[in-house]
Design goal:
The structure is a single chain. This protein is mostly beta strands. It is built from two helices and 26 strands. A five-stranded antiparallel beta sheet has the order 12-11-10-7-13, with no helix packed on it. The protein has a five-stranded mixed beta sheet with strand order 16-15-14-26-18, with helices on one face. The longest helix has 10 residues. The two termini are about 30 Å apart. It comes from Zhenhengia yiwuensis. Pathway: Cell wall biogenesis; peptidoglycan biosynthesis. Pfam families: SH3_3, YkuD.
Length: about 280
């Protein structure tokens, strides 16, 4: 039975990002479309929405589209630490960065990330940054790759709704759980999925469903039944042509997306139709 869904169109959680190089603001999600203005390297843009490989942004009171690859990456600190002036623990501090703070990563050099925090640039040791603001040891992942039901119940992972979704990036599997009568999680589905390629990895951590779109895409492709994980990351269908009339890439069990998690059409639709906003997601 289809559940009553709370659909929303709220913005991505990342309010601002920074351009990594000189970038054009396009009228549509295509580099061949009209250029509204040129955005210089290091400029701050307001994020309106995100869809994997494109962001809708506002810059100088103009709203348009920018390729995701030209913008900074959002990370979060999982402890209080210092923003350093150079990539060294011996360099001068620039600012104190509290636990759970959002930073925008401009580049990574060795084990250090060049970031912007509160419009101040500096360096943070990359180990102290995660996609969700939790420490890498937030859960015991002993059984994550071999017995997902045990992982979920041993860790007593809370979810504000009856459902919980997990994705195993190593084995490229997505699981859907439901809360049983005894309070334990019961596995409903186990599906093959395709995840982010090494250059555009899928985010890791604990997230909560935050809206959905019936489809999105570009001049080259369309995906359907998109359920937002966080920011520009979604669970969605395999790739269709731009008109949405035929599948052009049905590959699953691979690492080749721009960061989203692709599922068979019927599985993406099940999540879209049945999993409520605020449901917990664990990806590792």
């Amino acid at each position: 039975m289809r559940r009553n869904l709370r659909r929303n169109n709220r913005q991505t959680s990342e309010s601002y990002k920074y351009t990594l190089a000189n970038t054009n603001l396009y009228q549509t999600k295509s580099t061949s479309s009209t250029i509204l203005t040129a955005i210089p390297s290091g400029a701050k843009v307001q994020i309106i929405d995100g869809e994997e490989d494109w962001y809708t942004v506002m810059y100088n009171n103009l709203t348009g589209y920018v390729p995701a690859s030209s913008l900074s990456t959002t990370k979060y600190t999982w402890l209080d630490l210092l923003l350093r002036s150079y990539p060294s623990a011996e360099s001068n501090p620039v600012a104190m960065v509290p636990e759970k703070s959002e930073v925008q990563v401009l580049s990574v050099t060795g084990e250090w990330s060049h970031v912007v925090y509160n419009d101040q640039q500096g360096y943070i040791f990359s180990y102290f940054l995660t996609d969700d603001g939790n420490s890498p040891a937030h859960y015991d992942f002993t059984y994550f790759y071999t017995d997902m039901t045990r992982f979920v119940n041993d860790n007593q992972i809370p979810s504000p709704t009856v459902n919980l979704i997990t994705t195993d990036l190593e084995n490229k599997l997505t699981y859907v759980f439901e809360k049983g009568a005894n309070g334990l999680r019961v596995l409903l589905y186990k599906w093959d999925c395709t995840v982010g390629k090494p250059s555009t990895p899928t985010i890791k951590g604990t997230f909560y469903v935050s809206g959905r779109k019936p489809y999105f895409g570009t001049d080259n492709y369309r995906v359907k039944y998109a359920t937002r994980i966080k920011g520009a990351y979604y669970y969605h269908s395999v790739l269709f042509n731009a008109a949405g009339t035929e599948i052009i890439d049905a590959r699953l069990g691979m690492a080749l997306s721009h960061g989203c998690i692709r599922l068979a059409v019927e599985n993406a639709q099940w999540i879209y139709d049945n999993v409520l906003d605020a449901s917990a997601i664990v990806i590792n």
